[in-house]
From TrEMBL, chains A, B:
InterPro entries: Amidase_Cbmase, Bact_exopeptidase_dim_dom, Peptidase_M20, Peptidase_M20_dimer. Keywords: Hydrolase. Belongs to the peptidase M20A family. This is Peptidase M20 dimerisation domain-containing protein. Pfam families: M20_dimer, Peptidase_M20. NCBIfam families: hydantase (TIGR01879). The keyword Hydrolase applies. The lineage of its organism: Eukaryota, Fungi, Dikarya, Ascomycota, Pezizomycotina. GO terms for molecular function: hydrolase activity, acting on carbon-nitrogen (but not peptide) bonds, in linear amidines. It comes from the Eukaryota. It comes from Meristemomyces frigidus. Residues 229-327 form the Peptidase M20 dimerisation domain.
Length: 455, 455
């Protein structure tokens, strides 16, 4: 097949959608509509249904002629040989685990599109210069084992394997399993060490739904991802004093939940001021009784911005604001008409996760852009816009590509999702959008392989 | 013993404190200090430890010469005969169950002081005109079976016994027991129907710790309780949309937790404006993941005021405010610097419990006042103050006396507790305060018996 022909390779949309929906039988979640595919997903990492999806990945890629291996974090690597197999493969991939109430596209699209890429290469008897790999990263979501992108983080050398193996399941809440015990239980504790040295990659391409509303709102088909914004996760603990709701005047309360409410609002104000994001997704309190003012609240705080410095600024200002609010100083006027209390709360912070701003590789980005141009018609870059079809963008969410990019040239391809909704059963990307993304993924990988061949 | 002597009867402080601390071995809670009695209590209603406390009540009062019976709600009634046993007894009592993280005095003081009253009457060979009873009401806290004062509510005819029997345990959260199944399991499903007709009371006196800071702050020994404030409990559900914290701008969020935070602050502002109380003690959210904006929050709202009309007003204003806040109308300026969102939440209210304002009986109140005067030195009522020792007050918290008062003359005696703290392991009333209260309880019951004899 000539190089010209290679750039005209296209995926089979129906086959891709069939892979998505067939594999989504394992771990089907909440129904949100009438159609048989209108359910979300609940396929927690290393659960029985995740094992079924993994087995499918193994069998399918093996049948497509790949050599498949599994590493000590359960990451699955399927490699289709090229003409020269002494150099590392160019990889495409993502993850097959989901949020507890997630959808059918987050992660899943990236893996199934990479498998579809293998099918297209086989159907067209394509011989690549170097091997082409497909990867399924373990526990990207961090929903069950509370550290997102943990398995690519071990691969890149950023997270010690022991730390990852010892992570305890947080869903269901009475589960005592660890990552290691679950990897063993479902037969995916691989013998290959989990590292970029044992499983080197020449490059890493990841197709993903945008998980935000920009592409849809601007009617763009493809997001060319230049990097990932910086983010930091914290656990904040507010301690006040349990007291009786009926017998304790406002002035005598140290209400940890009222104080937390002010903190949540303050974090939004501060983030908004800096054009950043602040979010609280988890909140627990004690003792949890209608007639007891809670003396203890713990909540998560997720701060994001494209700039590391902005995340630091928001963190710093939130720390100052939370301390003031805990001490009864409502300097932001959030609750100006509440009578002040003579009793105060204390606040403690714990940093759980830091993901500095990531900048992807120019070579990978230009392969994606060229594949997009070929699919959608050419277009110049003007500011962030690429013709009318594409957009240069920064990912709001972290992805395994963050860690991959530390050890090899990397980028991502985004496609629009309905209403920007993700981490939600109703998450949806149209078949056309899925196929667009898969076409660009395929085109970018093939282009990168050619680039390597030319060097 | 002459009537003059009767008014000089005093309890044995050491014996009373021994009863409190001995019985608190059953269901001992969190330690908060070094001393062996410096632990809280966790004696949930109808648990194994509640059974131990009940067995103690039965054995102790039987040994003191009482006839004891148990009704269909597990309420225990111990009756010491008087000269005329054809009329109902004058009762003193309270409850032996505690909050999950409660203290050693809430309820327990009222029952142990009533038992101490029996001991004093026996020690002094006192013959009362009518029988004297001691009652231990079941599940006053409503902590395990989520309806406070439920067993006195069945007794008064306000709550159907089937409804009470079918209440499901909420602690521990995976418990499937009902009140009836637990009453049966621990052997306290009595054969007497639970009603004021089957177990009539001539009057009901209840000693309790104040659970608030007023008596301590004003250095008063005794609170003479004129009534109980009005309160209403609600469950509020806020629905927004789950979305990704990193990829969803503030403008695209329908953040149920941010909206709830505003509602909690709004409820405080509104209550403060009316001199009322509003409190949130329970808050649950879904899905509960650091990187997902919560699309669902449910929280409790407890509104209180001495006036029924004020509770209604606060409820009405909160309903209007919550609807506005859910619809994105921040008319209270709580989060003025947050960029507005184009997506909104919905809010639903459920009323869980209504306890209208309660006014206690003048005869009972004057017996308490007279007993207080005798103990503490005389004093005139000036406004709310009774000399320097006492205070006329309205109870902030509901008590079984609320329901008792619907079927018989009733009042309560309050004693100060440290820092106003209750529903907390560190809840504490000094032995002197406990003895003061028990002395006044004894004095009031003896006076009420005398009053009945004279009529
Ligand atoms: N895509 C995704 O949900 N990644 C998890 C890490 C994050 O919250 O950004
Ligand atoms: N005393 C007490 O805690 N009673 C329960 C009902 C209430 O919350 O007022």
């Amino acid at each position: 097949m000539s190089q010209k022909d290679l750039s005209s390779l296209r995926v089979n949309k129906e086959r891709l959608m069939k892979d998505i929906h067939d594999t989504c039988e394992w771990g089907k979640g909440e129904r949100y509509g009438e159609h048989e595919t209108e359910t979300g997903m609940s396929r927690l990492s290393l659960s029985d249904t995740d094992k079924q999806a993994r087995d499918w990945f193994h069998e399918t890629t093996t049948a497509l002629g790949c050599k498949v291996h599994v590493d000590a974090m359960g990451n699955q690597f399927a490699v289709r040989p090229g003409l020269n197999n002494d150099a590392p493969p160019t990889y495409a991939g993502s993850h097959l685990d989901t949020q507890p109430t997630g959808g059918r596209y987050d992660g899943i699209l990236g893996v199934t599109a990479a498998v579809e890429m293998l099918r297209v290469l086989n159907d067209n008897w394509v011989e690549t210069a170097y091997p082409i790999g497909v990867v399924n990263w373990t526990n990207e979501e961090g929903a069950r084992f509370p550290m997102s992108m943990v398995a690519s983080g071990v691969w890149s050398g950023d997270i010690p394997v022991e730390k990852a193996h010892n992570l305890k399941s947080v869903i269901p809440s009475n589960d005592t399993a660890t990552m290691k015990s679950e990897l063993e239980r479902i037969g995916y504790l691989g013998s290959t060490p989990c590292s970029w040295e044992s499983t080197p990659m020449a490059a890493h391409f990841e197709l993903h739904i945008e998980q935000g509303p920009i592409l849809e709102a601007e009617e763009r088909r493809i997001g060319v991802v230049q990097g990932v914004q910086s983010y930091k996760w914290f656990t904040v603990t507010v301690k006040g004093r349990d007291s009786h709701t009926g017998a304790t005047s406002f002035a005598h309360r140290a209400d940890a939940l009222l104080t937390t409410s002010k903190m949540i609002i303050a974090s939004h104000k501060i983030a908004a001021k800096h054009g950043a994001l602040a979010s609280t997704g988890i909140l627990n309190l004690k003792p949890g009784s209608t007639n007891t003012v809670p003396g203890w609240v713990q909540f998560s705080l997720d701060i994001r911005s494209p700039q590391d410095e902005t995340v630091e600024k928001v963190e710093k200002e939130c720390k100052a604001a939370f301390s003031a609010l805990a001490a009864g100083d409502d300097f932001m006027n959030i609750s100006s008409d509440c009578p002040p209390s003579t009793r105060h709360c204390t606040v403690e912070w714990r940093t759980d996760f830091i993901s500095p701003a990531t900048h992807f590789h120019a070579d990978c980005i230009s392969c994606v852009q060229s594949a997009g141009q070929d699919l959608c018609g050419s277009g110049q870059v003007k500011g962030k816009d690429i013709g009318s079809w594409g957009k240069l963008m920064t990912s709001g969410a972290g992805h395994d590509s963050v860690y991959a990019s530390k050890r090899c040239p990397t980028t991502m391809v985004f496609v629009p999702c309905r209403d920007g909704v993700s981490h939600n059963p109703a998450e949806y990307s149209a078949p056309e959008a899925c196929a667009d993304g898969a076409d660009v993924l395929l085109g970018a990988v093939v282009r990168y392989d050619k680039l390597r061949g030319q060097r």
